[in-house]
Amino acid sequence: MDKSNRLYLLDAYRGFIVLNMVAYHFCYDYFVLIKSNSNWIYMPEVYIWEQFICISFIFLSGFVWNFNNNGKLKRGITVSLCGILITAVTAFMGPDIAIFYGVLFLIGASMLIMIVADKLLIKLPSVLVFIMSLLAFLITFSIPQRHLGFHRIKLIRLPDWLYKHHILVPFGFLKEGFVSADYFPILPWFFLFVSSYALHRICKDLGLFDKLSFLKLMKFRIPGLTSIGQHSLLIYLLHQPICMGVLMLFSMLIN
Fold first, then answer.
1. Angle of helix 232-254 relative to helix 8-28, nearest 10 degrees?
2. Contact 254, 39 (CB under 8 A)
3. Which of 81, 111, 121 lies closest to 237 in space, CA to CA?
4. What's the pLDDT score for residue 67?
5. How far apart are CA 124 and CA 136, in angstroms?
């Protein structure tokens, strides 16, 4: 995004989410990896916290995709390569923390898919794209659990053969025995990306980006948070080794 048009309040919100992500992973490393309390991640408040972080990251990524007119391909490839790097590093460190098809994979893939999808979606009304994509996200959310529906309401049971091929795992068809410490398949999450892309179009259709009062609000900088949000990818790549290093040092000092 051009610096003159940058909406710094979105950077600040991304920075807030990054801080939540670092805190969540620090707690995960402590409770799950060090204390071996695997039940921690299933606590309702922890699940809500995790989903808030993930949904915010993906939704914000879809919303700002529209701003980067000349660098969409480069940005998508960069994020995808960072996802591959995360997979390589975590797989080397051990199976318990190995990440396959994590959030960077999802965001990078969504950025690249959207380059093609935009040529089709741009012909449809923004509101229709928003409603349909959000509905598709909710209906396909349980694809890894082998059905379509709304959360625990099962509408359609999906055939077992879809879940027997590793090549379909990135699309949400979770093969038995597959394990990943962070799993964000293209389905359903790409639909969430599309819904935020459509929300940006709705804001543009309403002329919000042309209103001085709206732009003044969105250009408001929050010290610290804005800067963190602008360097979110680098922080994502570095925060886990730092968290583990701090915990290991703390553990050594205690012992």
1. 30
2. no
3. 81
4. 85
5. 16
Question: How high is the pLDDT of residue 136?
Answer: 97
Write the DSSP string, 203-234.
HHHTTGGG-HHHHHHHT---TTHHHHHHTHHH
Written as one letter, the residue type at 169 is V
174-192 core/surface letters (b: 16 or more CB in 10 A; e: else): beeeeebbbbbbbbbbbbb
Give the per-residue pLDDT at 4: 56
Residue 159 is predicted with a pLDDT of 95
10-residue mean pLDDT series, the chain (255 residues): 73 96 92 86 93 94 86 93 92 83 95 96 97 96 92 88 95 92 94 97 91 87 93 91 86 76
Sign of CA dihedral 118, 124, 130, 134: negative
- Residue 199 has a pLDDT of 96
Burial of 223-247, coded b for 16+ CB within 10 Å and e otherwise, reads eebbebbbebeebbeebbeebbeee
- Say if CB 150 and CB 139 are below 8 A apart: yes
State the Cα–Cα distance between residues 35 and 38, nearest whole angstrom: 9
Polymer length in residues for the chain: 255
Distances (CA, A) of 128 to 14, 64, 73, 135: 27, 19, 26, 11
Q: Which residue do the tokens 């318990």 mark?
A: 96
Report d(CA 27, CA 21) in Å as an integer.
10
Diameter of the chain measured on Cα atoms: 63
User: For residues 203 and 210, what is the distance between their CA atoms, to the nearest angstrom?
Assistant: 10
Cα three-residue angle 110-9-238, rounded to 5 degrees: 60
Host H or E run for residue 56: helix 44-64
